[in-house]
Design a protein that fits this description.
seven-stranded parallel β-sheet; Immunoglobulin-like; 25 strands; 33% strand; 11 helices
């Protein structure tokens, strides 16, 4: 029987990037960890409909209840880091964390797999279950099925995750194509993907203090969210970095962390993996390759017969080192929207250490997005976007998914109805940003 307090989802997190934000709005960095900074992360999670904030090592009980209350008001829950000793030494420790409003605990530094340590893990899982709390084990033995007895165990680490980029080069694209075939068979894992600091292995160097870099292309990194099994999926990079990369964040706002159906389309250990996963009416396809560039074909016969679908694709850019540095090539990608059905077969070129993701959803025949005072509506194949507002519109901007402004118009503030012509834009997905005197609203637009 499912437990309502066990809720998979995505979490923002400050530890990997040392809480460094590229903004002057608020002091950031590890030295400034506290209530104001955590509120910033909660606001980011709420804006992009992420379910959790994880407060890692360094959080303080003096503001824990306040941040839990603040987050709850925005429909965000809190995971909190702890090490193994306190809940083992004091059986009331988990109850105390629960009293602060914490939804789940990330238990670290087990660092053993003898019988004593295995007993610790089961004791903590039971205590968390008794208090209706989720638990994620970090620095822990590989899973052996305990999550079947205690489904509140949402993740185990037991893998060389992206944190290793701070110290060595072991979390590399070849390794990314090893452990899905081996470690992932044992159960869910905590790799913590989501880096926007993408380079190829030849440019990589470990950075222990500050913001690390990761090996593999941007599309390779996003594909981890489809291929890896992580019911609690971490976004390791900073909110400000995701806001610079609108396409990546649009994908991360949509990708689920649990699935109804999984299909392996093609795979070879250490070399490549292509998987399709279903959630409701949507399908997500992820593909990754290791050191070698390669061509892959995706057969969409897994889709229902006769149904036209919209496929949004993020793939490696076709850029050579002759006109751009290889570091930028790793960060470069193409995003495009096409129509597919179950007879479609598409070929793609994956760059060295590359990848792609595809979000397949029902064909867009018309949609409207709105808040209490602003609505943005559009019909399929209509080159006009209709904006309605309860108060005067101050400005309208259309941005592509790289954050570039493709259209901008200042309005005198008296108009409450506006049609925006987007016929000159290339086919794809865009973001409409509408500003009134008291509100700022963003909505998806399809050309």
């Amino acid at each position: 029987m499912s437990k309502p307090y066990i809720k998979p989802g995505r979490t923002t997190w400050e530890w990997w990037h040392d809480a460094i934000l590229d903004t002057n709005r608020i002091p950031s960095g590890i030295a400034n960890i506290g209530l104001p900074l955590y509120k910033y992360y909660v606001d980011f999670a709420a804006q992009y409909k992420l379910e959790y904030l994880t407060m890692d090592a360094g959080w303080n009980e003096s503001y824990a209840k306040q941040i839990c209350q603040y987050a709850a008001a925005k429909n965000v829950k809190i995971f909190a880091w702890d090490y193994i000793n306190p809940p083992i030494a004091n059986r009331n420790h988990i109850a105390h964390l629960k009293s602060l409003g914490i939804a789940g605990v990330k238990v670290d530094f087990i660092d053993r797999d003898d019988q004593v340590a295995v007993n610790w893990v089961e004791q903590v899982a039971k205590d968390c279950a008794d208090h209706e709390m989720m638990v994620m084990f970090h620095g822990c033995p590989k899973p052996t099925g305990l999550q079947r007895t205690y489904p509140n165990i949402i993740n185990f680490e037991a893998v060389r995750g992206s944190e290793c980029n701070k110290w060595d080069d072991t979390a590399n694209p070849v390794y990314h194509l090893q452990f899905p075939f081996i470690r992932m068979l044992a159960g869910p894992m905590d790799y913590t993907p989501g880096s926007m600091r993408n380079v190829h292995r030849t440019e990589f160097r470990p950075i222990s203090k500050g913001i690390p870099m990761t090996m593999g292309t941007r599309a390779h990194e996003l594909a981890m969210y489809v291929i890896f099994d992580h019911p609690l999926a971490y976004l390791c990079d900073s909110p400000t970095e995701y806001r610079k990369n609108a396409a990546a964040m649009t994908f991360l706002s949509a990708v689920p962390t649990t699935w109804d159906k999984t299909l392996v389309l093609a795979a070879k250990v250490e070399e490549y993996a292509v998987m399709a996963k279903q959630k409701g009416n949507d399908w997500f396809v992820g593909a990754m390759t290791s050191a070698s560039a390669r061509d892959i074909e995706i057969d969409f016969s897994f889709l229902p017969s006769g149904a036209k679908k919209t496929a949004w694709i993020i793939r490696d850019a076709e850029i050579t080192k002759d006109n751009v540095s290889s570091e930028n090539t790793a960060k470069s990608f193409v995003n495009e929207t096409i129509s597919v059905d179950n007879a479609s077969k598409l070929s793609f070129r994956l760059a060295s250490e590359g990848g792609l993701v595809i979000h397949v959803q029902d064909l867009i025949t018309g949609f409207i997005e709105k808040n209490e005072s602003i609505s943005v509506s559009q019909s399929y194949n209509d080159a006009k976007v209709t904006i309605r507002s309860a108060e005067g519109i101050a400005s309208v901007a259309i941005l592509d998914l790289a954050g570039r402004v493709c259209y901008h118009e200042n309005i005198n503030g008296s108009q409450k109805y506006l049609n925006v012509d987007i016929s000159r834009l290339s086919k794809g997905i865009y973001i409409a940003v509408v500003v009134t005197n008291s509100a700022r609203y963003s909505s998806k637009v399809v050309r």
